[in-house]
Design goal:
CATH architecture of the domain at 1-111: 2-Layer Sandwich
Helix content: 40-55%
CATH superfamily of the domain at 1-111: Beta Polymerase, domain 2
Length: 409
């Protein structure tokens, strides 16, 4: 039995990055031997075990053969005869196909170290094209290591293009796709993830609504970058630079989908794109089974982001309507995330990345004013049921009118 550290732990150590997850491969062992040493089995499809003390994953060396469609369409074979090189060749990228023994001796049969130095994301073998999930994984690695100058090797991009055209991407489950998408959006340069997906043709398969934004012009006065797709990438980039949470990043990616539906004769204007885009945002949300908080914020930002930009001009009644829509009284955090998404949208424009966004503090002040209305005095006046609701609404409207007057004074 020989045990090797493999994959990401080797890659990140060689890059001088912190090592978080460690995976191990066991060569020359059987399931029975692993159980006898106290390892706990967890793999449903192939032999993976948890170490009795550390809890880290140890997998028996294995080979795989394509047997069906999609990410799960593989037959695995694990036995003591499978070599380390045979196990490593089934991995996605050369930089993930290195191993190390307990003396830190490197096994690198597919030149991962060379590709690390060349800053290349290159597939290990033609078997790469058998797993559609790898298209998303490579795009995610491109986003993660973009700051170090990594790019996708042309021959790997070609395989990703073939996969995108093959129909295999449609076989991915929503859960697997979302896991990769959500992780990619939380990288330092998530816009690179979208760029790579677009370059290999995967974006128009997975998110045709986002792909449709490229080449759609906007008024230059508000959008010096003009192209709606370019703007969307810039907004996503701003969200990452400002360390926004996943909910905000997802909303930033989807906020302008309605502009992809504007008839060409109406370009570069996009009247009511906030409303036309809602059905598209809903479709993307459902396609990937995004978490509820991501779904809700994306829809609210899509519908109301122009309200956010025009906050200082809004009538008190419209402000109140906006606050009610977000339920700022019980869910203040969601309104904060809306404000953040609006600010990222305002900054995601060429040359305007450092602009101030006074609407943010103004909207926070409006929410505070509306929340300050006390319910107890209205109860003491005898209001209850629907009448109480109307009375609270009237008092909040008054508070917002006073707030507006003071703000403009």
């Amino acid at each position: 039995m020989q045990i090797y550290k493999v994959g990401g732990a080797i890659r990140d150590r060689l890059l001088g990055k912190p090592v978080t997850d460690i995976d191990w491969v066991v060569v020359g062992a059987t399931t029975e031997e692993m159980l006898a040493k106290g390892f706990r089995p967890v793999g449903a499809d192939f032999p993976v075990f948890l170490h009795p003390k550390s809890g880290e994953e140890y997998a028996l060396a294995r080979t795989e053969r394509k047997s069906g469609r999609g990410y799960g369409g593989f037959t695995f074979h694990a036995s003591p005869e499978v070599t380390l090189e045979e196990d490593l060749i089934r991995r996605d990228l050369t930089i993930n196909a290195m191993a190390e023994d307990d003396q830190q001796n490197l096994t690198d049969p597919y030149h991962g170290q060379r590709d690390l130095e060349a800053r290349l994301l290159r597939h290990v073998s033609p078997a790469f094209a058998e797993d559609p999930l790898r298209v998303l994984r490579v795009a995610r690695f491109a986003a993660r290591y973009a700051e170090l100058g990594f790019t996708v090797a042309p021959e790997t991009l070609e395989l990703m293009r073939q996969l995108s055209e093959s129909g295999e991407l449609e076989a991915l489950t929503a859960e697997r796709s979302w896991k990769e998408i959500s992780r990619a959006l939380m990288e330092d340069q998530p816009q690179v993830f979208i760029e790579v997906l677009r370059e290999c043709g995967a974006l128009k398969v997975l998110m045709p609504e986002v792909d449709a934004l490229f080449g759609v012009p906007q008024p230059e006065a508000h959008h010096p970058e003009i192209d709606t797709g370019v703007h969307t990438l810039s907004v996503l980039e701003q969200a990452a630079q400002h360390k926004q949470p996943l909910t905000v990043r997802w909303a930033c990616l989807l906020h302008d989908l309605g502009k992809g539906l504007t008839p060409e004769e109406e370009w570069p204007r996009h009247i009511a794109h906030e409303h036309t885009g809602l059905k598209l945002i809903k479709a993307v949300n459902e396609r990937f089974k995004a978490p509820k908080d991501c779904q809700e914020l994306a829809l609210l930002v899509g519908k109301y982001h122009t309200h956010g930009h025009r906050a200082l001009e809004l009538k008190a009644s419209t402000l109140l309507e906006l606050l009610q829509s977000f339920d700022v009284y019980r869910r203040p955090q969601r309104f904060e995330e809306f404000i953040a998404a609006c600010e990222m949208d305002a900054r995601g424009r060429k040359g305007l990345e450092q602009r101030s966004y006074p609407q943010a503090d103004y909207l926070r002040g409006a929410a505070t004013a509306a929340r300050s209305v006390a319910v107890q005095p209205l109860l003491e006046k005898g209001f209850n049921g629907p009448e109480l609701g109307e009375a609270i609404k009237r008092e909040r409207l008054k508070a917002l009118k006073v707030y507006k007057e003071n703000a403009s004074a």
